[in-house]
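Here is one chain, start to finish.
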Amino acid sequence: MKYGQDLEISKVDIKNVVADFATWSGPEISKAIEGGIKELDVGVLINNAGVSYPNGRFFHEVDWKMTESLIKVNSEAATWVTRAVLPAMLKKKKGAIVNMGSGSVAVLPSFPLFAIYASTKAYLGMFSRCINLEYKHHGIDIQCQVPLFVATKMTKFKKSLFLIASPEKYAKASIRCIGYEHLSMLLFMHTCHFRRL
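Its structure:
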């Protein structure tokens, strides 16, 4: 199913589920999500939690707490949340899961001074590719989207410019692209920037 073609959202119910991705174990995360969505019909899961370094640094300079947080939030959390949501999608034989990777990982052969961040985002690309092959015949689309720059707290960009998308613009493009490629760079302005690198 190509979600963006005829997706019309008229009413959205929001339910908050509190989970600490940086400190909780995987099973704790899954149980919290499972309990929180028990009564809901989840059609689309977007795993977009992520952290990075405040600035570039050598691998040995990244402290223990930051290292653990990067791995747990960027890689493990998406794995455990997906595990919690997938069974309901399997029963319905439809759904979509989007894991938010990083454009820097998609096209650069390496990303020095951000080694742990880049590695955790590369994991999401491989994880998405593998489970997409496992579940697409069950009617579930799984994709890793690889944005470049979006004006968020993590990127520290305060406003959108030509090569920096606003969160709203990226979100609209994100929904339109679900179901097409397992690894997707959505915005024209981001692909132009990559061609120039």
